[in-house]
Amino acid sequence: MNKEYIQACKNQDPRSQKAVFLHFAPKMMTICRRYVYSDENAKDVLQEAFLKLFKNIDLYDEQKSNFESWIRMIVVQEAITYWRKYIKKSNFVEEDLVPLQIENPIIEAQLDEENILELIKSLPDSTRIVFNLYVFEGMTHQEISQTLHIGESTSRSQLTRARKQIQEAILIQNRSENYAKLESKFKNKLDNYSSNVELDSMWENIDHKLRPKKSKRIFFLYLA
Question: I need a surface site. Which of 59, 146, 182, 216 has the fewest CB within 10 A?
Answer without folding.
Answer: 216
